[in-house]
Amino acid sequence: MPGSGWLARWPVIRQLKGEDPRGSAARSARTDALRPRTERADTVARSVCPYCAVGCGQLVYVEDGRVTQIEGDPDSPISRGRLCPKGSASKQLVTHPGRQTRVLYRRPHGTEWEPLDLDAAMEMIADRVVRTRRETWEQTCEGKVVRRTMGIAGLGGATLDNEENYLMKKLYTALGAIQIENQARI
Amino acid sequence: MAECHPVGFQWVMEAKARGAKVFHVDPRFTRTSAMADRYLPIRAGSDIVLLGALINHVLDNGLDFRAYVLAYTNAATIVSEDFRDTEDLDGLFSGWDPDTATYAPRSWAYAATGEQPPAEHAEGGRRHAEAAGPETYGAGGAAAHPSPRTDPTLTHPRCVYQILKRHFARYTPELVERLCGIPGAAFAELAEAVTANSGRERTTAWVYSVGWTQHTVGAQYIRTAAILQLLLGNVGRPGGGIMALRGHASIQGSTDIPTLFNILPGYLAMPHAHRHEDLEHYLEREGGETGFWGNRRSYLVSLLKAWWGEAATEDNDYCFGHLPRLTGDHGHYTTVMGQIDGTVKGYFVIGENPAVGSSGGRAQRLGLANLDWLVVRDLTLVETATFWRDGPELETGEMRTEDIGTEVFFLPAASHVEKEGTFTNTQRLLQWREKALDPPGDCRSDLWFYYHLGRLVRRRLSDDEIDRPPRELTWDYPVHGAHREPSAEAVLREINGVGPDGRALSSSTQLRPDGSTACGCWIYCGVYADEVNQAARRRPRGEQDVVAPEWGWAWPANRRILYNRASADPEGRPWSERKAYVWWDAERGEWTGHDVPDCEIGKPPDYLPPEGARAQDALAGTDPFIMQSDGKGWLYAPSGLADGPMPAHYEPHESPVANLLYGQRANPARRTYDRPESPYNRPGPLFPYVLTTYRLTEHHTAGGMSRPLAYLAELQPELFCEMDPRLAARLGLGNGDWATIVTSRTVLEARVLVTGRMRPLRVEGRVIHQIGLPYHWGWGGGGLVTGDVVNDLTPLVLDPNVYIQEGKAMTCDVRPGRRPRGRAMLDLLETYRHG
Amino acid sequence: MAERMGFFTDTSVCIGCKACEVACKEWNQLPDDGFVFEATSYDNTGMLGASTWRHVAFIEQSRPVQVPSDPEAEDSVDRWLMSSDVCKHCTHAACLDVCPTGALFRTEFGTVVVQSDICNGCGYCVPACPYGVIDRREGDGRAWKCTMCYDRQLGGLEPACAKACPTDSIQFGPLDELRERAEERVARLRADGHEEARLYGESPSDGVGGAGAFFLLLDEPEVYGLPPDPVATTRDLPAMWRWAGAAALSVAGAVALAFLNGGPGLKSGTSLNGGTFLTGGAGPKGRAFLKSRAFLKGRALLKGRALLKGGTR
Question: What is the pTM of this model?
Answer without folding.
Answer: 0.93
